[in-house]
Amino acid sequence: MNSIRVIIITFCIFYVKCDQNDDRFKRAVNRTYIGFEKENNTEWRKTFHFIQGADTQFGMIETFLQNKTDGGWDEEIQLTAQAINEWNAMTPKPKFVVICGDLVDDFPGKEPRRSRQITDFKKVFEKLDNDIPLVLL
C-alpha cells in the first residue's frame, strides 16, 4: 500500500508567532495569515525547519485505488494521524506545517459526504501541537 513520505526542509524565513487561542482553521484573513503578518516579520532571526505535505485527500484511497463506490477514508485518517504524531514528537518542533493540494476528495455539492470529510480532516489536524501553526493551501 502507499506510504506517507515526510520531507523535512531546513530553511531560513521570518519569525512567526501565532495566538494559540485562535481557531487554527480560520487564521487566513484579509490576504494575510494571523501570525505571519509582514510588520511582525521584517528581520531574519535564525534558520529553522518546516513541514510541507500534500494531498491528504480524505476519501481517495478507497474510491480510486480500491475501486469502491463512495468508499471511506479511515486509511487517510490513520496515515495523517501517524504523520502528525511524528511532527509533534520532533525536536526542535517545526515552525509551521503547510498542507497543499486536495485536502478532501469530494467536490463542493457532494453532500453530506464532503462535509464529513472536512469534519474528519479538522478533527485529525486538531491533534497537531498548538505550538505548530498550520497553513492550508
TrEMBL record:
Statement: the UniProt record of this protein carries the keyword Signal: yes
InterPro entries tied to this protein: Metallo-depent_PP-like, STPP_CPPED1
Signal peptide range in chain numbering: 1-18
Keywords, sorted A to Z: Signal
Source superkingdom: Eukaryota
Record SUPFAM superfamilies: Metallo-dependent phosphatases
Protein name: Calcineurin-like phosphoesterase domain-containing protein
Organism name: Oppiella nova
